[in-house]
Amino acid sequence: MTRKEMIDRLNEVLGSKAPSMTFMPESQIRQLYEEHVVSDKTEIVYGEVVKSFFGITKGFQSGDVLVTKESLKELYKPLKLKSKVFHEVLKAHDAVLTYGHAAGNERVIVIDRDTSEIIEDKTGTPTSVSFYVPPPYKGKLITIHNHPSSNSFSPKDVSTLNVIKQIECSVIQGHDGSLYYLRKHDFRKNDFTEKRCKDAFDNILNSPVNKGLPFRYKLEMFVREIATLLNFEYKRR
Fold it and tell me: How far apart are CA 232 and CA 183, in angstroms?
């Protein structure tokens, strides 16, 4: 996000309370932006909505990255989401990517796949974000979070989907526009713990056979292997 875009957004949010930012250092403007726009839970930050000639929303753009509505419709097609739920999903992808581009950190939004209710909206670090789902919660959930690295699911991401029984589907929005989708079909508890998940990844990471392969490629191997083992549906775009 440019200096002018941050100033314009701060003036919009703060109104008459906005300080003069004409000669303010950009680092200070960015700090104000993160405090009053990005970190404010009542203010969801979105990128530029992209519309067709007829005014129909085609997707959104954050920085140089364009995410189309059609690409997300195709990604989520197996879930057969209601239109109001898909609308919240589209907004969530927009929000986590725009936040990530501005702050450089991960953000997760958890949505009830039947009611469209937002269950959690949390921010984290450049490499992780945590959230909580109350054990009594009965609905099935979709989690959407961004990866500044644009890599696929981490071992923690995979184990979270596996261990928290309410989560049906987890989706990652990469900062380069890439999309990763992981869905479970069996909600029964299994013995594949977070430690076993990490050990499986370490075996791939440190195997002499995989020596010299890029980290991203090893991570992709891990996700595909675990998806097969646990009967998860995995795809990427």
Answer: 5
Count: domains in the chain: 2
Model-level pTM? Answer: 0.78
Residues 34 and 55 in one domain: no
Domain interval for residue 39: 1-43
The two three-digit tokens of residue 85, written as one number:
């739920």
Rounded CA gap, 219 and 202, in Å?
Answer: 10
Token pair listed for 88: 């919240």
User: Which pLDDT tens digit goes with each residue over 190-230?
Assistant: 888 889 999 999 999 999 999 999 999 999 999 999 999 99
* Together in a domain, 74 and 110: yes
CA-to-CA distance for 174 and 177, rounded, in angstroms? Answer: 5
Largest CA distance in the chain: 62
Alpha-carbon distances, residue 106 vs 19, 122, 126, 152 (angstroms): 28, 9, 6, 13
- Quick check: 146 and 127 in contact, CB under 8 A? no
Alpha carbon 82 to its chain's center: 20
Please give the angle made by the CA atoms of 125, 43 and 26, to the nearest 5 degrees: 65
* Residues 177, 222 within the same domain: yes
